[in-house]
Amino acid sequence: MINPFFKNKGPFKIEKLLKLSDIDNIQNLNGIKVFDVKDLLSATSKDITFFHSKKYEAIAIKTKAKICITTKNLSNILPKSCEKIIVNNVLIAIAKITKSFYPKSVTDDFDKDVNDINKTVHKKKVEFGKNVLIGKNVKIGKNCLIGHNSILESNVVVGDNCSIGSNVIIRNSILKNNINILDNCVIGKKGFGFFPEKKQNFRYPHIGIVIINDDTEIGCGATIDRGSMSNTVIGRNTFLDNQIHIAHNNKIGDNCIIAGQVGFAGSSTLGNNVIIGGQAGISGHLKIGNNVQIGGGSGVLRNVPDHSKVMGYPSKDLKTFIRENK
Known about the structure:
Structural class: mainly beta
Shape: globular
Strand order of the largest sheet: 8-11-14-17-22-25-28-31-34-36-37
CATH superfamily of the largest domain: Hexapeptide repeat proteins
């Protein structure tokens, strides 16, 4: 899918791309045309990708990427068909490359092209409050409501029968049908991704989007960050309570119920039918299985298998937690 929110400046020849990105061309690669930067799973034979952790070995073995940024220790895991660029810090290198392809994905400046909804084609088919602003190429389906002081920035897509509350900002997002977004939500902003530097922290580009599937409700004050390299996804018929934070690249399954003030670090995956109690914290890069229940206030630091019930910090089997805390 062509990214509707960030323009790809490619293709680049690899030698030019590396020069633009301030990366040494130690392997002396020349003439290869690179069309895009993608993760290991979605990269094609026209793309460049990255491999920085053995945690992703199973995907790396099968990647179709033409070129991969990686370390010397991990390079032998990649297919022979994939050219390797060896660096000391994979994430900084791929951040620089991503910035070369998508220079506007690093910051979140406000959309200068928004208009009062009364001056747009949506004024006759949307019920709306005061001070509603709509960006260019926004698509809004039938039977939708938008509350006071809300902003839908350029290229946002909203399906049928959606209700968007007051003081909501939506950017870089696609909302399907029958969705309720309650007041004061911010959806689609860049994630909290950067590399600490003493002189100036290096921000990581965020070229992913937010996709919210049918029949979902997002509670008041929720923040859902767009993905860095992949998308942030909320599954069908999933309900989020108030003041929930979902960081970049998370994939939340269908039919999940998540209580207030739960926080997700980046790049974790939740299965279907997951229930999470209030004020729980989910660490990054985890896999939470299907039909899992997580008690309120828990800190989840490891993967959780299907059908598990856990609680505590660090989270443990619920029966064990109860026995230890009688």
